[in-house]
From TrEMBL:
InterPro entries attached to this UniProt entry: Redoxin, Thioredoxin-like_sf, Thioredoxin_domain, Thioredoxin_ResA/DsbE_sf
GO cellular component, one term: cell envelope
Positions of region (Disordered): 37-78
Name assigned to this protein: Redoxin family protein
Species assigned in the record: Mycobacterium spongiae
Amino acid sequence: MFASTWDETVSGKTRWTIAILVMAAALTAALVGQLGDDSAPGARTTTPVDREHRDADTPQALAGPRQRAGLPPCPGAGDGPGPAALRGVVVECAADGSAVHVARALAGRRVVINLWAYWCTPCIAELPAMAQYQQRVGPAVMVVTVHQDENEAAALLRLAELGVQLPTLQDGRRRVAAALRVANVMPATVVLRADGSVAQILPRAFSSADEIAAAVGGEA
């Protein structure tokens, strides 16, 4: 009687052990399959996809912030094909939502590109200095700011708050910086010569127009 009970107990434990192992193997196979699917082209991923701007930033929603910011139009096509690194890069003009072919817009001009985001504290301090620098140099140099976050409405409201009215590109995907091989830091400034070549990349913040003029020197 005792032996029979012991055998039955052992047999029951064995069955439970086997069942647990089978379940674990099934779960492992399912997990491996899921990982394999995620690595396949076109598979779903939990990594957020960079966007030009938020879904909430519709033309209607941006109309008010754009009016408050009062930004100048983005530059039209210049003379020549423009900087080779920027050819094919198309972003949005924050002033009116129009498409800007960046290389064409900057062609034949000496340009200071300022890369920023509405939440970047050093950027907020630097933008008024960029505007003052533009006033100082006049048409000899064109200062263009590039907003590198998808929250376009916040960028427009920030510019309105600061009273900064410079041509601004909305570049939530950071395509301009990537094309120019600028490190992912903000603020950062890129100086382009009139022939489209990169004179300087300055991954730092400026506190005054004097600092900007000293750093840029005769390159712009």
